[in-house]
Amino acid sequence: MVRLWEVMQTAQLTYEPRYYALAERSRYLDAAARYIEGLVCDSDAICIVCAEAGHILGSLVAKVEKKPPVYIDVTVASIDHVCVDEAHRGKGIFRSMYALLELTASKRGVDSIECSVDCENTALSVYRAIGMVPRQMKMLKHVQKPPNQTPHPTTL
Questions:
Q1: Distance separating alpha carbons of residues 79 and 117, to the nearest angstrom
Q2: HEC per residue, 6-70
Q3: How much is the pTM?
Q4: DSSP state for residue 146 in the 8-state scheme
């Protein structure tokens, strides 16, 4: 799964270099392994792996969480990450993993499935094809830091 995670993260570097970055590779892979292990061990996560002959072709992880009561759909499975090996894309692996996610989420009482997708990600069309629709937009502005200023440790 770490190999696919690296493929996914590397692809994100092409979207917005001020937003996405990878640390030195050995440190990055260690952190990714710990992060994925935490997700796999999380009882609120739904982890789906597609493998063939011991080779992971794709993985999908979603976190089941309660939303504030202002939402109608209060139990949501938020896709944390999904990646299909580049050599196996376009063969229905994502659709199969998503179908299993939907079935598993339904059995857990989940009301809806959501995900955040970079505006430049070519996977947008794939999400639309399975019936997902845009609902919200994440806004981002990089904060300009004054030159030669030491960060102040206090917060409000």
A1: 10
A2: HHHHHHHCCCCCCCCCCCCHHHHHHHHHHHHHHHHHCCCEEEEEEEECCEEEEEEEEEEEECCCC
A3: 0.76
A4: P
- Beta-bridge partners for 78: 63, 114
Helix (H) or strand (E) holding 107: helix 93-107
Geometric angle at alpha carbon 42, from 37 and 45, rounded to 5°: 105
Among positive and negative, which fits the CA dihedral 34, 36, 40, 44? Answer: positive
The domain locations on the chain are: 2-129
- Evaluate whether 56 touches 84 at the Cβ level (below 8 Å): no
Pick from 83, 84, 136, 93: nearest CA to 112? 136
Instruction: State the pLDDT at residue 148.
Output: 72
Q: 2-129 belongs to which CATH class?
A: alpha beta
- Is the CA virtual torsion 87, 131, 106, 114 positive or negative? positive
Q: Along the chain (156 residues), what's the average pLDDT of each consecutive run of 10 residues?
A: 68 64 70 84 94 92 90 88 91 96 97 89 90 86 77 55
Residue 146: its pLDDT value, please?
83
d(Cα 5, Cα 49) in Å, to the nearest integer?
12
